[in-house]
Amino acid sequence: MPPWRDVIAVERGSLLMSDQTVEHYERIAADYDEHWSYDPDYVWRFSRAITDALRLTRTDAIADVGCGTGLYTRRLAAEVEPERPILCVDPVPAMLERLPASRSLQPLVASAEDLATGRVALPEPGRLDAIVLKESFHHVADRRETLEGLAGLLSRHGRILLVMLPRTIHHPLFHEAHQRFGELQPEPAEIVDMVAEVGLRASVSYRTFHMAIDRERYVRMLASRYMSVLGEFSDDELRAGIEQFRHAYRNDPVLRFDDHFAFIKGWVRPG
Ligand SMILES: C[S@@+](CC[C@H](N)C(=O)[O-])C[C@H]1O[C@@H](n2cnc3c(N)ncnc32)[C@H](O)[C@@H]1O
Question: What is the whole-number distance in angstroms between the Cα of residue 196 and the centre of ligand 1?
Answer without folding.
Answer: 23
